[in-house]
TrEMBL record:
PANTHER family: DOXORUBICIN RESISTANCE ABC TRANSPORTER PERMEASE PROTEIN DRRC-RELATED, TRANSPORT PERMEASE PROTEIN. Its main location: membrane. It is found in: Cell membrane; Membrane. GO terms for molecular function: ABC-type transporter activity. The keyword NADP does not apply. One of its GO terms (biological process) is response to antibiotic. The chain crosses the membrane at residues 39-59, 74-96, 117-144, 156-177, 184-203, 239-260. Pfam families: ABC2_membrane. This is Transport permease protein.
Amino acid sequence: MTTAAPAPTHAHRPVPGGPALAAVFKAEGRLFLREPGSLFWMIGFPTALLVILGLIPSFREANPDLGGRRVIDLYVPIAVLLGMIMASIQAMPPVLTSYRERGILRRLSTTPVRPPAILGAQIALHGIAMIVSSLLAITVGRLAFGVALPFAQPGYILSMLLMIACALALGATLSAVAATTKAATAIGSVAFLVMMFTSGVWMPVQTMPDLLQTIVSLTPFGAASQALDRAMLGSWPEWQHLGIMVLWAAGLTGAASRWFRWE
């Protein structure tokens, strides 16, 4: 019987070179693209939901309670966040947990390609999926429903990047605390429902009562929803919302690094 090698945490172990990392990324990319169902939920579903909502006539009419904006205008940033939720909570944790559960990460520790390489590849691929999903939602919102592009584009981009960092850190943390794939799915389902609410999928954050809006804004997706909305209107996102995302990203990254197990 082969003895499992210890987790690759020692500084004297060599770091795989560029060709090895590229090979891992290419292999993981092929596996990633072979999951059309997962790709749909990450990339296609947020835009499909946006289209369905945009077909509701009342959602395309200016609403005085929203400052003359339409409901569909609020849902483009929400669709952006929904793609991040699907990728980070529903898609990434089961993959990473299954790699650990099946011993793939343990076996990699005996090869020149260390487990962090495959972890990094998965994080990068899901991050790319988030960006593609965001661009698709913004483009369809503009072309199909005339939703204005963000007026404060630097602020919008910064908010998106911070939220992607938060989402990936959240996915890594869920992967760390879940011992099995089934556990990752169960924990992810609970987190999914919570994040759907705080991001405004069921009720745009801007339409929530003031107290609830304040509470939701303390969550990563709630803060991101507020930041993206302000950038859409042409204002720089409030620093408190950006700061909340930075704190969440840093805290979740630290938690994932501390709790993640390779076997």
